[in-house]
TrEMBL record:
Residues 15-90 form the FAD-binding domain. Gene3D superfamilies: FAD/NAD(P)-binding domain. Keywords: FAD, Flavoprotein, Monooxygenase, Oxidoreductase. Belongs to the paxM FAD-dependent monooxygenase family. It comes from Macrophomina phaseolina (strain MS6) (Charcoal rot fungus). This is Monooxygenase FAD-binding protein.
Length: 361
């Protein structure tokens, strides 16, 4: 999506913000000016807010905090169900562990010496991750290494025949002792195949227009951060917008009214530069982390091998600390009057520094 500072079309008393695209970034951004008195226009190509396209949206703590700020966290919670359990199954579909108890017991006792070299061996052909959601709906993904980098503009389009060919490679993989992936695939409601894109745009703005979300920072799904980074960019841009408004009319915070009718080009330039500079380093880091995770899952290259080899030696606390360090850098809407107790509580560690994050969350 993109954003435009649009000269007043209807009124001579203010400038409207035009939002092109009603995806995660666009809808998040639209909520913020709507609640803070800034005029905006939202353009969306689809005739539905949530068209039946794309995959799922991962909601991580950094995104949930922003959704809490704009007042829809509680509505989302009505659809949340408790997580029941994880199952880990061997290549023949037999249950190897339930909720990690069996795995931890074996690590504690230690396997017989001849088995140790194979303790952390990974499947050489295929492995599966399936999520069972509401009403027994199963979500699954097949990831395939394209073996080469494809530049933007040359992205291939896939047909049903390509989907069938990809499915055939994992059709016999066992999900349970008497269930194969072919059984799941035969009951599919929909299946699409697309090349996963990744990259950070070299330039995010020109004149009064700026990019946001996937248009500026596209990442593979393996970090589950695409949607939440779009939300963070929306919050970051809104904060710069509030700062601009404060400079123009002497207001303060996120609730002091509309933008005045005349905004000098250099002030717009500064606003968009600050938005870009604040976001570029963080999203670049996350795009790279997602790519590393993708490579590891596909077992692609030396970096992936090193990452996989290191996993058994990493304690849970270390992995959690790495995640928390990233979350501590997350954007939120500054000076927001609607902040909840949740937002205040989970924002405290950012003021204390990353070293105490694990102890305080």
């Amino acid at each position: 999506m993109s954003i435009i500072f649009l000269a007043a079309m209807v009124s001579e008393n203010h400038v409207s913000v035009a939002i092109i695209g009603g995806g995660v970034a666009g809808l998040t951004l639209a909520n913020i000016p709507e609640q803070s008195g800034i005029s905006f226009i939202l353009w969306k190509a689809h005739d539905r807010i949530s068209p039946p396209a794309g995959a799922s949206v991962g909601l991580m703590p950094n995104g949930m905090r922003i959704l809490d700020q704009i007042g829809i966290h509680d509505a989302l919670e009505e659809y949340i169900v408790p997580h029941d359990f994880w199952e880990h199954r061997d290549a023949d579909g037999s249950l190897s562990s339930d909720k990690g108890r069996l795995r931890l017991r074996h690590l504690h006792l230690g396997p017989p010496a001849p088995a140790r070299p194979k303790l952390h061996d990974l499947p050489t052909d295929a492995s599966l991750v399936l999520f069972v959601g509401m009403n027994g709906t199963i979500f699954w993904f097949i990831m395939e290494d394209l073996k080469k980098t494809i530049t933007y503009g040359q992205t291939p389009r896939y047909s049903d025949a390509d989907i069938d060919a990809a499915f055939a490679k994992v059709a016999s993989a066992r999900i349970a002792a008497d269930v194969t992936f072919a059984d799941v695939f035969s009951k599919r409601c929909a299946a699409v195949m697309t090349a996963l894109q990744e990259g950070v745009a070299a330039r995010w703005f020109a004149g009064r227009m700026a990019l946001m979300g996937d248009a500026a920072h596209k990442m593979v799904r393996h970090a589950a951060m695409g949607a939440t980074q779009a939300m963070e960019s929306a919050a970051c841009f809104a904060n710069r917008l509030f700062e601009l408004r404060a400079k123009l009319d002497g207001g303060d915070g996120a609730d002091s009214g509309d933008l005045p009718p005349l905004i000098a080009p250099d002030m717009v330039q500064q606003c968009l530069e600050e938005y870009t500079e604040r976001r570029r380093a963080r999203v670049t880091e996350i795009v790279q982390a997602a790519g590393t995770s993708c490579g590891a899952q596909l077992k692609k290259g030396d970096a992936a091998r090193e990452y996989i080899d290191a996993l058994p030696r990493l304690r849970n606390e270390v992995l959690l600390e790495k995640s928390l360090d990233s979350l501590l850098k997350a954007e939120k809407i500054d000076g927001w009057a609607e902040d909840s107790d949740h937002v205040h509580h989970y924002s405290l560690p950012t003021q204390r520094g990353g070293g105490t994050a694990l102890a305080n969350l």
